[in-house]
Amino acid sequence: MAGGMKSLAKDTAIYGLSSILGKFIGWCLVPIYTRVLTTGEFGVMTNVYAYTALLAVILTYGMETGFFRFMNKGDDEPMKVYSTTLLSIALTSILFVVFCFTFLNPIADFLDYAHHPDYIAIMAVVVGIDTIMTIPFAYLRYKKRPIRFATLRLSSIFITIVFTIFFLIICPKIHAVNPSLIAWFYSPSYKEGYVFVANLIGSAITFIFLIPELRGFKYVIDTDLLKRMLKYCFPLLILGIAGMLNQTVDKIIYPFLFDDKVEAFRQLGIYSACSRVAIIMMMFTQAFRFAYEPFIFAKNKDANNDKAYTEAMKYFIIFSLIIFLGVMFYMDIIKHFIGKDFYEGLNVVSIVMMGYILFGIYFNLSFWYKMVDKTYFGAVFSIAGCVITIVLNIIFVPIYGYIASAWATLICNLIMMLLSYYFERKYRPLPYDFKSIGLYFGLAIVLYGVSCYARFDTEALRLIFNTVLFAIFFFVLIKRDLPLSEIPVIGKIVKRK
User: Fold this and answer.
1) Which domain of life is it from (predicted)?
2) What does the alpha-carbon distance between residue 206 and residue 71 come to, in Å, rounded to a whole number?
3) Are residues 27 and 284 in contact, defined by beta-carbon separation less than 8 angstroms?
4) Which of 141, 327, 412, 446 could crosslink 385 through cysteines, CB 3.0-4.6 Å?
5) For the whole model, what pTM was predicted?
6) For 432, which DSSP code?
7) What range defines the domain where residue 199 resides?
8) Among candidates 293, 285, 257, which has minimal Cα distance to 400?
9) Phi, psi torsion values for 301, nearest 5 degrees
């Protein structure tokens, strides 16, 4: 058992690290995007990728999870499950691509891309390829090959990044010196289009790398098995769509909320770029999830598991607030992460980050319905959040602009968190340390408020003052919940003294 848990922890670390590292590497492209692309062009890119994220969920229709469920169930031959799942996903993905190409112009007109239907065509192919690849990647996880899984995932990201840099930075420099050298494939005005082209190249090359996982077995579709899988996966599809809409719907509907489409994409570009500054909080939440989920399910067997849950919640909130204060106190430095044209939207960063914290708390709270086998609550909460996000964006974005989207996301996450907590009290109440949680939340808000209202003649003085405020938070933390003697390395030094 110990060996199995050790292997699980190792594999989880590799899968989790590759996912987080991939997001981090992609995040590092934002400084390039926001300096090469205009606010409107970045808005177009954001809008297209929001559609692709939603389509990826729809086109996988829960079959990745269904694949693991039926592969491990033992009632069906594993390779028949793999073949059936792969062919099902491949067939629907190919039909999707054919549909997009057949009705390309009407789709482009509806989505306000009549001037660039090629964007729709390129990303339709990318979504089709990426969706098909989810099953070979799932098969690698089933076969316990985390190294190959992570290598291929990261290779795809690196290839995309290399070609993005080539098209957005290197090609313009070559064109400025010797246009004829690259005129056969490069157009300076295409800009954001090359981001999609780079993505297509990355996906296509990764698909080629996955060919070994597509050979060595008989391709068959077991119709009875497929029916059972689809029945199992349908609720997951609904949950997945609701969850993804919560993340992307504001970016999808922007062109429909403004009469002036240029202004719509400009505001979306600013909002999206500044939200990327806050994405470090989402990466922390995801990292915490990879560590937390196996820990919690293991602790569920222990007699004192309630304390483990509540302690995990408290320290998640504490470290989330540290990240929040760190970003906000040093915004004068961090703002250089994006281009100057996007600075006007930096006021959304604090709202978006707090929204991520609330979502992290909601995620931690969600374990109660998993533990009592009432997972349908997750779908209910996600759908409620989705409806709230859509309604708030439709009503307030045309009036207040992108700041309304930030508040809509925060309110959505707050309501989902409160709903989950309310029902947790009915089914599996836990003794959370509200005194400490309230203290740290209150302290963080007060310190941030003081920082906002303090005025200084120079940036250096403001940073020094904010560092003092940051130190106050750490002082309270060390005195109450994180003694120096318990911190690795530092604890050894303290004990020696």
Assistant:
1) Bacteria
2) 24
3) no
4) 412
5) 0.83
6) -
7) 2-433
8) 257
9) -85, -15
